[in-house]
Amino acid sequence: MKNIADTVHIGELIAVSRFFQLNTYQMISLIEDGEMEVFEKKEDFYNKYGDKETYTELEDWCELNNGKIFTKPR
């Protein structure tokens, strides 16, 4: 298991948890379990999912102003 603190700052976690309507514990659990992904760069996200208008394979996704993208697959 990788250390989430190396990837996600607590402020990012709080902001994204509000977007997904989850608490921070739920967010950490989903990331640890691999049910939620964190991409450091938009290019990494595009490499996996492509550059599309809609992403039907994702329940939802959120891009922060620093370029990180959080995804919640279906």
Question: Could you characterize what this model shows?
Answer:
This protein has 74 residues and is α+β, with helices and mostly antiparallel strands. It has helices spanning 10-20, 24-32, 42-49, and strands at residues 37-39, 58-63, 69-73. It has a 3-stranded antiparallel sheet with strand order 1-3-2.
List low-confidence stretches: none
- Structural class, please? alpha+beta
> Level of helix content?
25-40%
Strand order of the largest sheet: 1-3-2
Largest sheet at a glance?
3 strands, antiparallel
End-to-end distance = 22 Å
Q: Which sequence of SSEs, written as H and E, runs from N to C?
A: HHEHEE
Nearest-integer average pLDDT: 92
Number of helices: 3
Into how many domains do the coordinates divide?
1
> If you compute it from the alpha carbons, what radius of gyration comes out, rounded to the nearest whole angstrom?
12 Å
Describe the structure using short key phrases.
74 residues, 3 strands, three-stranded antiparallel beta sheet, 38% helix, single chain, alpha+beta
Summarize the structure.
The protein is of the alpha+beta class and 74 residues long.
Write the layout of secondary structure elements.
Elements: H1 10-20, H2 24-32, E1 37-39, H3 42-49, E2 58-63, E3 69-73
Helix pairs in contact: 1-2
